[in-house]
Amino acid sequence: MTVTPQTSGAAPERTGLHVTYEGRLHPAEMLARGAAFELFSADELPGFEFSPRPGVAYPWRKFVHAVEVSAVHGAAEPTEEPDSPLLMPVHRERGWAYLRQLSQQPGAAADPTLAVVRASAVIRPGTRMLKVLSARQLAGYVRGWLPHGFCYREHDVAHLRTPAGMAVLRGDGEGGDVSYALRWRAADPADYDVPVGAAHHGLTVLPPRDRLGPPVLGTGFVPSSAQLIPEFVTRDFADLPMPANATLLAYPAEGVEVVLYTYQAEQRGWLRMVGPQWRHLLAAVPGLSPDQEYVPTGDVPRSTQLVGAYGGGEYEAVADQPDGFRVLAMTRAARYPVTAAARRLRFAHWRGVPCLVLREESGWLRLRLRRPDPEAVLTTGAQCHERGVYEAWAPGAEVTGDEVVDLPYPTA
Q1: What's the CA gap between 337 and 325, in Å, rounded?
Q2: Which DSSP string corresponds to 173-216?
Q3: 302: closest CA among 132, 122, 147, 121?
Q4: DSSP H helical segments within 329-388, as ranges?
Q5: Pairwise CA distance, residues 38 & 298, whole Å
Q6: pLDDT tens digit string along 305-329?
Q7: Distance set, CA 61 to CA 21, 71, 239, 306, 324 (Å)
Q8: Is the N or C terminus of the chain more exposed, i.e. has fewer CB atoms within 10 Å?
Q9: pTM higher than 0.85
Q10: CB 332: neighbour CB atoms within 10 A?
Q11: How many helices (H) and strands (E) in the chain?
């Protein structure tokens, strides 16, 4: 269930949707366009939690992923192409429980069965991605941070709807009574990488003193004894341009999804969407007034930019998937589809370590490691800001190979 400004705290009216789960038929609510369901029961059942809501005859509920449901009854026709689920080869002796165990073994990345399952988690243009945030991180994104680091397909995590459930996705080691998240649509699968193989081996051997959040297993799956969730990282741990209509969300203990802000690309800011009954969810966010209706990102230095070609000229562009890329313009008539698009960023080396240049201040460069490993962290003195993200300041005179690179997107 997603809460909009007009929604009260009560559960929505039953729509006739029912699902079969473990041999029983339950009234249900569809989540994330059918990726998961909230099941309701009038009686206590194993795994269900007591969560009564005003005017609802079903005080027990449970969140389950679509793969756990054997049948769906009364669902509306989908309005868009769904994301591909995880698929595994049929095997009478090796089921999902076996795969979950295998996904937690760092040396199992090359296992053929696990590799096939991991490869079935596909990102396409328009795939909804999710990054779980702390209150501090939420404040950073409202003020201009861009998507980067570890993230997940919304399809794979849609059944995690409470702070306790989403704790497995946290990358900063913090906790709280509310979980926050950034959701956006992927511009292109080339923007993402799977943390598997030699290129990411350094992440798997970083000692606990040098990292935040759970360890990186190197199998491409989240460390968890109960979940089988494929994880991704932004390629080179780079920032991605913020797409149009990205959203900042809150997940309180009630199990609802509250839309806090939506990104207005042309205005370069976040428009508050949450109604008065949920503004208390922003109380823990440092430096952010719950009553502020619009928060501009201002002149925050951007480490990446989306550029597009139109009519022989180059313009700042915006990703508006699944409809492609267009010129970033205030007036609707000028929002032309671009004929070519690219993500522009800045690469460099410092002390032999490949880095991204985030910004420049008074002759110093803020760098982020592209391939973190123990040696690179020691050489640069980089600090871990969240799982996998290591940054440091470097004297500009010591940086070599400083270059601006355009990574093109397909537009046809």
Answers
A1: 6
A2: S---SSEEEEEEE-S-GGGEE-SBSGGGHHHHT--GGG--SSPP
A3: 147
A4: 374-380
A5: 39
A6: 999 999 999 999 999 999 999 999 9
A7: 12, 18, 38, 43, 39
A8: C
A9: yes
A10: 7
A11: 7, 25
